Amino acid sequence: MTATVAENGGAGDVKAKTAMVVDDQDKIAAQVEYYFSDANLRKDKFLKEKIAEKEGWVDINVLMSFNRLKAMASSEEVVREAIKNISLTNEDTILELDETQMAVRRKSPLTDLTEEEQKALNDRTIHFKGITSDATIDEIRAFCEQYGKVETVEMRRKREDRSFKGCVMCVYATQEDADRALEGKEVYDPEITFLKENKTRYFARKKEWYESKKNKKNRRNVDGDDKVDETEDTDPVKVKDAILVLSGMDTKATQYSAIKDFFKSFGDVKYVEMAEDTSQAFVRFSASEEASLALSSGSDAEEGKKQVTIGEKTYPVSLVSGEEEVSFWKRVNSAFKNAIPRDKHAHRSKGRGFRRGGGGYKGTDRRTRQEEGSGNKRTVESVAEGGDNKKPKL
């Protein structure tokens, strides 16, 4: 019997190929455990929705719609027996069957990570770079398992065509396993430069690289290089690929500060804009590299998209591009041109929000504006660093 195999197993299965089904119960049970694992559930929107429908229970026939499991098991009965066997032989399994043996769930529900738990997870997540482009998920997992027990392996893919980038994020069961992976001397392919680092170091290195690149660009401008003719402003887009959009937000309940605090670890967040009419939030960075880093940090969602968790809520996130990007920058440029600088000495004693003694305004400036030609209202928040109110920075 033949079936479709996918290299990222789950609701977002991609890159299918034909293979023979082998009813290996150990592999089937391990695959189902992966579906219900902490690492996968935090990014698998489809499965989380199914879990919420029936008090955590998910029908086995739903799991059989996932390409990777479908490639491993010839029938629902085979999957049922695999889960039943692991429940009897391994008391540490996270799975349990219902009375009808037609559905499966986690023994304990998924909980949100604390800041300390997230750091520990990042420390035992290893970034391997330098893997051949034609490597399969099974081959990569076998390489990672030489150092210890592996919880998940995520193949990193390019946004534009979903092709494999030659690097993976591997989550180890313990910190000791992750340390062994970092200390190991093995490489995946002697012909390719091999890099190993934990996820904490990965984010720090990326941020350092982006800041270095931005500082280099600023130095060129100070020296008079790469000057732009400010008389020519035909392109409204000031910084391309620097804006992310979050969807499905409760714009009345979500705090601006929560969004900014989440994204500022990836770079300089210049502006946060919430559109109450569309339940969207736009986050603008100083540089495209910062937006790219923030987007890559998100977990994989269905259809190759990304999602981020802020507080207790998970939101789809994507890069603003094309006409939507141009429209956004036109709004920003219009707001900048129409802003009226305030005289810092005018009515100083009467203005709300000002402190005596020259402290200046420190806080949040909320404004609601109505777009030209429409009834849409957008609430914008900018955080003042102190001192005088000025035109918004581009």
Description:
The chain is an alpha+beta fold. The chain folds into three domains: 2-106, Arc Repressor Mutant, subunit A (Orthogonal Bundle); 115-202, 2-Layer Sandwich (Alpha-Beta Plaits); 243-339 and 359-384, Alpha-Beta Plaits (2-Layer Sandwich). Helices cover 34% and strands 23% of the residues. The protein has an eight-stranded antiparallel sheet with strand order 13-14-15-10-12-11-17-16, covered by helices on one side. Helix 10 runs antiparallel to helix 12. The longest helix is centred in the middle third of the chain and has 24 residues, at 199-222. The N and C termini lie far apart (60 Å). Mean pLDDT is 77; it is low at 1-20, 226-233, 344-377 and 379-394.
Question: How is the CATH topology of the largest domain named?
Answer: Alpha-Beta Plaits
Radius of gyration: 25 Å
Q: Give the class-level CATH name of the largest domain.
A: Alpha Beta
**Whole-number average pLDDT?**
77
Beta fraction: 15-25%
Spatial order of strands in the largest sheet: 13-14-15-10-12-11-17-16
Helix content: 25-40%
Sequence of secondary-structure elements? EEHHHEHHHEEHEHEEHEHEHEEHEEEHEE
Helix/strand-derived class?
A: alpha+beta
Largest sheet: 8 strands, antiparallel
Q: Provide a count of the helices.
A: 13
Distance between the termini: 60 Å
Give me a quick take on this structure.
The chain has 394 residues and is an alpha+beta fold. The chain has helices at 25-35, 38-41, 45-53, 60-63, 67-72, 76-89, 115-123, 137-144, 175-183, 199-222, 256-263, 288-297, 322-338; strands at residues 2-5, 17-20, 58-59, 95-97, 103-106, 125-129, 150-157, 164-172, 195-198, 243-246, 269-275, 280-285, 299-300, 306-310, 313-319, 363-370, 377-384. The chain starts with a strand and ends in a 10-residue tail after the last strand.
